[in-house]
C-alpha cells in the first residue's frame, strides 16, 4: 500500500480549493472528495 503524506501548505491549499468548489457545487465537492481523499491507492 502507498501512503500519501500531505504537507501543511498543500493541505491548506487543497482545503481552500475544496471549499471553493463546495461553495459553487456541493455535488462537485463530493465528487472531488471521493476521488482524492476516499479513493484507495492503487497497488
What topology emerges from the helices and strands here?
Layout: H1 8-24, H2 26-36
Helix pairs in contact: 1-2
Main attributes?
mainly alpha; 43 residues
- Shape call: flat
Largest sheet: none
Q: What structural category do the secondary elements indicate? A: mainly alpha
Number of helices: 2
Helix content estimate = 55-70%
Rg calc: 12 Å
Poorly predicted regions are none
What is the beta-strand fraction? Answer: under 5%
How many domains comprise the coordinates? 1
Number of strands: 0
**Mean pLDDT rating:** 84
Termini gap: 6 Å
Summarize the structure.
By secondary structure, the chain is mainly alpha-helical. Helices cover 65% and strands 0% of the residues.
Describe this structure in words.
It is a single chain. The protein has 43 residues and is mostly helical. The protein has one domain (1-43). Helix content is 65%, strand content 0%. The protein contains two helices and no strands. The chain has helices at residues 8-24, 26-36. Helix 1 runs antiparallel to helix 2. The protein is flat and about 35 Å long.
